[in-house]
Specification:
T-fold, 8-stranded antiparallel β-sheet, 5-stranded mixed β-sheet, binds adenosine monophosphate, binds magnesium ion
Length: about 325
């Protein structure tokens, strides 16, 4: 989880207009920095529109809403192309791209396994090898057929389903930023439960500062980082996990094994040009572990991995990131 840090200064300061609402199964906070000569009302109106946009994105991609496009796709029959909204098509197409780029560590078709492990969470009983094998047979991004000309999607295998949970919050964050910009806001931060984007600066003297949370000590910030016109997302095993028989299980599944990721990576943070990219690759990096940092570097993204070494937190960063006190510098 990330958090935006605020601090005080002096003189005629920018005011921070802020609103927090529950959405997408998390808490969304939008802050706009308003210069002394700018209108607070315009900022409030823009924030309202941006929150509305997040609600709109949620209604397209949520697996919990029966009428969402994704829910409709998941009810479709194999090999029967279904016409979908271009926006939904595009995010699925990009998600398949993230799956290819990460050799399936990120996999938008992981839902049969997610459902299996959700059942384990609710019942307290681990799935059998057979259950895992059967669910794995329904997972694989190469089994999605996309036809851009017809704007259709179909699955090649019965029982397949998609889960946009690893990327949709980042996408919603970027859409909210788009709406803020379109409504004249130049300096803002959108935080969708840790999937963030920093637009412009906090004021003429300071950039937006984001805190990277200690994965085992809630409320404690491990590092701070200043960002401008960048997305940052953290994925990890500490916000959402469940226990069975005294063992901790992550909500992130390794699609290649069918099991929740092990305890190698406690949290993975990605800094990218947008929040969607950061969201997808942060989830992937949790699966790939330290070996995934090469893929991240080649993509021109920056990563910070926190690994649990018998209770001590080991931090590893991409080349180009350095630590100065509690600050990460680029
Ligand atoms: P995040 O919190 O962004 O890391 O996304 C985690 C969510 O993405 C989970 O709650 C699942 O809905 C979904 N998910 C789990 N494992 C994967 C995976 N390997 N690839 C893509 N999505 C996943
Ligand atoms: Mg993610």
């Amino acid at each position: 989880m990330l958090s935006s840090c605020s601090y005080s200064g002096s003189g005629r300061e920018n005011r921070i207009i802020e609103r927090t609402e529950p959405a997408m199964g998390t808490i969304v906070t939008i802050k706009v920095s308003v210069a002394p000569e700018e209108s607070e009302t315009a900022a409030r109106d823009a924030i309202g529109l941006a929150m509305g946009e997040i609600g709109r994105v949620e209604s397209l991609f949520s697996v919990y809403r029966e009428d969402s496009q994704v829910a409709r796709i998941n009810r479709s029959r194999p090999n029967e192309p279904l016409k979908i909204d271009p926006e939904v098509f595009t995010l699925i197409e990009k998600s398949v791209g993230y799956s290819k780029d990460t050799d399936g560590a990120f996999d938008v078709t992981v839902k049969p396994l997610v459902d299996l492990w959700k059942l384990a969470k609710d019942s307290g009983v681990l799935p059998s090898e057979k259950d895992i094998r059967e669910a794995r047979a329904k997972v694989g991004y190469e089994k999605i057929m996309l036809d851009r000309d017809g704007m259709t999607i179909s699955f090649t295998t019965d029982g397949m389903s998609i889960d946009m949970g690893g990327v949709a919050k980042g996408y919603a964050t970027d859409r909210a930023i788009y709406i803020l910009r379109n409504n004249g806001m130049q300096n803002a931060i959108v935080d969708s439960g840790g999937d963030m984007y920093c637009l412009g600066t906090r004021n003429s003297a300071n950039r937006w500062t984001v805190g990277i949370q200690h994965p085992r000590d809630r409320g404690r910030i491990l590092y701070k980082i200043d960002l401008k016109d960048e997305g940052i997302d953290t994925s990890g095993d500490y916000e959402k996990y469940f226990m069975i028989g005294g063992k901790r299980y992550s909500h992130i599944i390794d699609p290649r094994t069918g099991y929740p990721i092990g305890d190698d990576v406690t949290s993975a943070t990605i800094i990218a040009k947008d929040s969607e990219t950061a969201d997808a690759y942060a989830t992937a990096l949790c699966v790939l572990g330290k070996a995934g940092m090469d893929i991240i570097d080649k993509k021109g993204l920056k990563s910070i991995i926190v690994r649990n070494n018998n209770g001590a937190m080991n931090v590893e960063m991409s080349k180009g990131l350095t630590v100065n006190g509690d600050k990460i510098e680029k």
